Amino acid sequence: MSAKETKKREKMEKEVNREKEVSKEKSSRPKCEKELKECIGKMKELEEYAKRSKAALENLRREKDEEVRSAANYANFKLVERLLEILDDMERLMNHFDDKKSLEFKALNFMYKKFKDIIFSEGLEEIETSGKFDPFDHEAIERVESEELPDWEIVEVVQRGYKFRSRIIRPARVKVAMHVEKPMTYDERSKENGEDGD
């Protein structure tokens, strides 16, 4: 074989090999494209999962922060609730003193004010009892007949109510007005029904 034929043969083999490679690439391309699409689909799924996980983690962190804040705000709730009993006892004791100028009363009043200032500084507040009855803050224990006052107006406070940082410890126990209608006389009833008295 001459050198010319050898070169021609090598050239032909190269072309055949190139055609084989091109046909291999063409046949493997759909498979690669399919795998690529699957990979892209899985990547999107994982991306969505990561976003949902991040959102869930943020919600959990927010809830935990809120729980910690709430626990810190109301950590002394039970203690203040129990100390309120002492405040009530001191008020009852002060009401039994006849001599408000005695040394004993002054000492008790001084301790009462100091004790009250301390627990009020922790977040205790007295429930407002002037005006209308509010079922969220008040407990009506008695209805008092009244011609002057409108229905559900607070007439008397029987026991003070308290909140601790907006949470009710004890509602205020109150007496409320109940409007009384006077019974109609015979003449008034006749006029209302359109009857003449004559």
Give the % helix: 55-70%
SSE string, helices as H and strands as E: HHHEEEEEEH
Give the name of the CATH superfamily of the largest domain. Head domain of nucleotide exchange factor GrpE
What is the number of beta strands? 6
Helix count, DSSP H or I runs of 4 or more residues: 4
- Tell me the name of the CATH class of the largest domain: Mainly Beta
Integer average pLDDT: 84
User: What is the global morphology?
Assistant: elongated
Q: Give the biggest beta sheet.
A: 3 strands, antiparallel
In the CATH hierarchy, what is the architecture of the largest domain at level 2? Answer: Roll
In percent terms, what proportion of residues is strand? 15-25%
Number of domains: 3
Rg calculated over all Cα atoms: 44 Å
Structural category is alpha+beta
Poorly predicted regions are none
Q: How does this model look, in words?
A:
- This protein has 198 residues and is α+β, with helices and mostly antiparallel strands.
- The chain has 3 domains: 1-73; 77-122; 125-198, Roll (Nucleotide Exchange Factor Grpe, Chain A, domain 2).
- 59% of the residues lie in helices and 17% in strands.
- It has 4 helices and 6 strands.
- The strands form 2 sheets. Strands 1-4-5 form a 3-stranded antiparallel sheet. Strands 2-6-3 form a 3-stranded mixed sheet, with no helix packed on it.
- β4 and β5 (167-170) form a beta hairpin.
- α2 runs antiparallel to α3 (103-121).
- The longest helix has 71 residues, at 3-73.
- The chain starts with a helix and ends in a 5-residue tail after the last helix.
- The model has no long low-confidence stretch (mean pLDDT 84).
